[in-house]
Amino acid sequence: MLYRQLARPLLYRLSAETAHHLILGLLLWAQLVPLGLALLRLVYRRASRPVHALGLVFPSAVGLAAGFDKDGRVFDALGALGFGFVEIGTITHEAQPGNPKPRLFRLPLDRALVNRMGFNNEGARAAAIRLLARGTKGRPILGINIGKTKVVAAEGAAQDYESSTRLLAPYADYLVVNVSSPNTPGLRDLQSIEALRPILTRVRAAALEVVPARRVPLLVKIAPDLSDDDVLAVADLALELRLEGIIAANTTISRAGLQSDPKVVESLGAGGLSGAPVRARALEVLRLLRDRVGASMTLISVGGLETPDDAKERLAQGATLVQVYSALVYEGPSLAGRISAALRSA
User: Fold this and answer.
1) Rounded CA gap, 282 and 58, in Å?
2) Residue 1 has pLDDT above 70, yes or no
């Protein structure tokens, strides 16, 4: 209630990206000051039901999707907010600034965001150095989401993903190959089976080589804009290559059914749409995947998930775990704890 009445109106006076960086700064501050994380846990964390998946025990089924903590700076504070796991990234092998600003926008009438960030991050080596210094003791379960460096041509994509894997796999509780962002030219073409197979094969081999003591779970993240047949083709490939899971779904390039003024939407330009408008398709893709892959594969459902009822529906329809992101802008930092507590009592 305090967030909606006080903090949110103040944040909305800032551009979406400026507000995001302000929140990141506050979370970083909470990690640095004595008892900062303890205070966050006291205020926001709630008792939750653990979930066994990917060979791990997740404190809660509710995680934070990639895109919020791109460089892996504040995942400890995010875990203290009640997330059962945090996915950092998307991280590319080479550092890159992303697309020109402005590149992140709110659509409050639709409870949605439009972004064309373009994988802005400091690169895999910088992230690896930071993760090595942090260590693993006491941290939340950490997924690392990797993507293609923008300047790398499609024919070099597999090598690019492999290079990131060699640097980051030792620090990942699970690893995600992101081929579904609409904001890197040509990236979604890598969802075709012919392009995706060598990427996943080389990432798996590299992870096994640099982390021989354990099999780092490997997942692929797909777009909601894939046709049903293409969704099923990815599912079949995941089964063939014995991936541990699939994340569905990323942002959409569709603008269908929005309540916002069409002229306002058009003025924002290109980018991926996330939030409530993705809910229906994300649920459809989840059902397709679960029917295809059977009961054993981990499916992480993301897209338009805002409430405890949304989370319960995803789990009932076959999700193993769920993730939120855009809803944080509208619901605030108590979201993960509220959903986790509701799932525990369900």
Assistant:
1) 22
2) no
**Region at 216 (left for phi over 0; alpha for psi -120 to 50; beta for the rest):** beta
Per-residue pLDDT, 346? 76
Which residue, 66, 61, 57, 68, is CA-closest to 84?
61
* Helices 228-240, 193-210: inter-axial angle, 10-degree rounding: 30
Name the 3-class secondary structure at 247.
Answer: strand
Give the residue from 271, 285, 277 showing the smallest Cα distance to 227: 285
Contact 64, 86 (CB under 8 A): yes
User: Within 10 Å of residue 189's Cβ, how many Cβ atoms?
Assistant: 13
**Percent share of the chain, pLDDT over 90:** 98
Read off the pLDDT band of 266 (50, 70, 90): very high
For the chain, report the end-to-end CA distance as a whole number of angstroms: 23
Dihedral sign computed on CA atoms, order 311, 312, 314, 320:
positive
Q: Quick check: helix, strand or coil at residue 239? A: helix
Q: What domain range is 301 assigned to?
A: 2-345
Tokens representing residue 208 in the block: 């096994």
| Rounded Cα distance, 38 and 317, in Å | 35
This prediction has a pTM of 0.98
State how beta strands 104-107 and 112-115 pair: antiparallel
Count structural domains, the chain. 1
Q: Please name the amino acid found at residue 189.
A: D
Distance, CA of 169 to CA of 340 (rounded, Å): 28
Give DSSP secondary structure letters for 24-49.
Answer: HHHHHHHHHSTTHHHHHHHHH-----
Contact status, residue 336 vs residue 82, Cβ threshold 8 Å: yes
CA distance 238 to 246: 8
Q: Which residues are the active-site residues? A: 181
CATH number of the domain residue 102 falls in = 3.20.20.70
